[in-house]
Structure formats: C-alpha cells, structure tokens
Design a protein that fits this description.
acyltransferase activity, transferring groups other than amino-acyl groups, alpha+beta, binds coenzyme A
Length: 140
Amino acid sequence: MMRRGSDTAWLREASLDFDRFVDDRVGVRQRWGVPTELLWFASAEYYIGSVVIRHQLTEDEGGGHIGYHVVYPWQRQGHATQMLRSALGKCTALGIARALLTVAPDNQASLTVVRRNGGVADGINHEGELRFWVDTSASA
Ligand SMILES: CC(C)(COP(=O)(O)OP(=O)(O)OC[C@H]1O[C@@H](n2cnc3c(N)ncnc32)[C@H](O)[C@@H]1OP(=O)(O)O)[C@@H](O)C(=O)NCCC(=O)NCCS
C-alpha cells in the first residue's frame, strides 16, 4: 500500500535504466502466483498512479482482482475513481464478470472509490479487509 511519505527507492531503479524498468513490467506477468497486469496513468510527463489487475484471484483471494494507488499531489481529484472504472472495463474484456476488491476498513478514500464504482459488500477477509464485488459489465 502506498501512503504519503512511503518508500521511493524504486524511483532510483527507474531512473538508472527506464527502458529496462518498463520492459520488466509491461504485459502480463506472474505476480503473487497469478497472471497480472500493471496499468500506469499519467498526465503529460506527470505520473498519477497505477492499477494492478490480477487476471485470477490468488488462492486466499488476498488483494482481490484490482489494486491501485494515486500519488499524493494528484489525490482527491477523482483519478482513482476513474482508474478503477477503466480497470473494470478491462476486466470485462478479460471475462471477469464480477471483480473482487478488498479495502482496509479505515481507508475512507478507497471505500468511496469502490462504492462509487458499484461495490457490493461481502464480509471481511482473512486480513481484516472489507470485501466488495463489482459487476464489471456496469462499467463498460
Ligand atoms: C485511495 C486512493 C487511491 C484514492 O485516490 P484519489 O485519486 O484521491 O481518489 P478519488 O479522488 O477518486 O477520491 C474518492 C473520494 O474519496 C475522497 N478522499 C480522498 N482522500 C481521502 C481521505 N484521505 N480521507 C477521506 N476521503 C478521501 C475524495 O475526496 C473523493 O471524494 P469526493 O469526490 O467527494 O471528494 C489514494 O488515496 C491512495 O493512493 N491511497 C494509498 C493507496 C491505497 O490506499 N490504495 C487502495 C488500496 S484498497
């Protein structure tokens, strides 16, 4: 999870050889033992944030299908809401009819993002996160 003041060591790796940094991340990659894809969002030269889509749920369903962050200067401008909407559209194309989202109960911003995208509550997972299902066809 990325928060204000979080680790930025990855920026150094990216700046040393950006082409390689991108090559290592582009396309469908195994992460957490399942096929995943990273989407980066930018406005001109500014990095806004990213979304990870798990094409399959992990065995314990931790993290659900979709995770996201928006970097601090771009928060509270509706970006995450739109980014999740785009990711849900991509899920439809991947054949994921219902996407699972998991959110820490104290993460008000993310709870708003998920609810604005039609998230329907479904209990709590083993990490104490709230689970939500989203009908991805509603975002198409
Ligand atoms: C959660 C996160 C992605 C939201 O990004 P964002 O681009 O600010 O989201 P949006 O602008 O679409 O905001 C959704 C709503 O939550 C509100 N919100 C944003 N930050 C908030 C905060 N810290 N506390 C309460 N509400 C907040 C926004 O104001 C907005 O409501 P509004 O339109 O009525 O103002 C961002 O805060 C973040 O990257 N957090 C760290 C990583 C993270 O928690 N990822 C999600 C894991 S499930």
